[in-house]
Amino acid sequence: MFDNFHCSHMFSGISPESYSRMMVCFNSSPKKYSAGETICFYEPKKRTVAIVEKGRAVVVKTFYSGSQTILEQLSDGSIFGEVFYFHSNTDGISVIAASECTVRFLDYEHIMTSCHNACEHHSQLIQNLFSIISCKAAELSEHIDVLSHRTTREKLMAYFQIQSSKNNSGKFKLPFSLSALADYISVDRSAMMREIKKIKEEGYIDISQREVTILKDYIQ
Amino acid sequence: MFDNFHCSHMFSGISPESYSRMMVCFNSSPKKYSAGETICFYEPKKRTVAIVEKGRAVVVKTFYSGSQTILEQLSDGSIFGEVFYFHSNTDGISVIAASECTVRFLDYEHIMTSCHNACEHHSQLIQNLFSIISCKAAELSEHIDVLSHRTTREKLMAYFQIQSSKNNSGKFKLPFSLSALADYISVDRSAMMREIKKIKEEGYIDISQREVTILKDYIQ
DNA sequence: ATATTACTGTTGCATAAGCAACAAATTACA
DNA sequence: TGTAATTTGTTGCTTATGCAACAGTAATAT
């Protein structure tokens, strides 16, 4: 379970032995859920940190209409909880098992308050938690950087630029579908497709399916 | 210095006596700056947490062209540092004294690592830092909520709704100028003015200068 | 008091972008 | 393997929005 993290890692720098001891100290035992089962609902003032030790789950928002959006995909090693969800409104947010999975719940207060037991890596845990939050914030900030451009073209190029520098390459694969990209940059999908076509024709990028190549720099 | 925080507070729940003791433990002595003086530059991997104990300062981004944007306004009790700035690129970011001011620098590692001295409120400090970061993240998230609407009208109404619920009133004062609002929602100012006029005419809101009143709910 | 700067309010024009609707291609899945 | 569901690619129409440019007002500085 110690890979697959997007940003940092909740237990990096902590040995499996230390991890086990800490779980005892936290008085946390793993709970099992079968596919489709609701793991929990997000509640306003609750501050539990949960870890998906094994399996896949999703954080979903259910609207009054009954329609749902996936807010986050969780897999082995992922963490979730109110602390990582930066909205005041937790209405309709729940976590649902996508496969059979094992989840551990930790008390936020216990994480924050240094304990008197043998948790030698407690401060490491806190630092990791901090990195995770900072990383989430950085992602939000990145999203704002993209969204704060006026035109579809500028949004697209800003997004491509970011992906390109993340991959250290002018060639990269989109992490999600073009439809999802349209959602991410908050523009109409058909309008985006039209713009992509133009950008291609003007020779700035090449793109087919999810493969993007930046051909020349787009200034401003 | 214990007020004036936007979100939470670095030293809330910590007595002045405990604060003084901690400053000794942190080996941090206050430094003085006169108006206009550069307090520091943001550097890529540096992680110093700084506190404006007295006076006013600004975090500014200076572009290659020489033009500047104020990223943040700091006053008595404000904190700043790389940890609170969620971009990988720190180029051209500096903190400048706006008036004579006193600043304290704390080592991030020392904050995170629980110390063996008499800092009884160390874990409180960590929790406060955590609240501050979470709060900043929540603000970013709020900004995304506004920006991810397609039209100027929707962005405006989303923004007004948020302000209204923050003030617990349908009547509130904009925290900045209309020009700045146009920047915040990332639309052309004149287009925004045109839309505001329409929204007024249709009776959704009333607005003159910076006073906004929501008259009827805007659905969707 | 006067100059300077910033902010507010308005308009014409060209076009970018939203919406709706459809066909083709791709992927998922039973 | 075959069928459904999703994604991609395209177009016509209408309108919202960006841009430029200007005048009037408020705020700030000298």
Overview of this structure, please?
Two copies of one chain form a homodimer. Chain A is of the alpha+beta class and 220 residues long. In chain A, 35% of the residues lie in helices and 24% in strands. Chain A contains six helices and eleven strands. In chain A, strands 1-8-3-6 form a four-stranded antiparallel β-sheet. The first copy, chain A, has a four-stranded antiparallel β-sheet with strand order 2-7-4-5, with no helix packed on it. The radius of gyration of chain A is 20 Å and the shape is elongated. The termini of chain A are far apart. The model of chain A is unreliable at 1-6 (pLDDT under 50). Chain A binds chain B through residues 83, 86-88, 112-114, 122-123, 126-127, 129-130, 133-134, 136-138, 140-141, 143-145, 147-150, 186-188, and chain B through 83, 86-88, 112-114, 122-123, 126-127, 129-130, 133-134, 136-138, 140-141, 143-145, 147-150, 186-188. The first copy, chain A, binds a DNA duplex (30 and 30 nucleotides) through residues 150-153, 177-179, 187-197, 209.
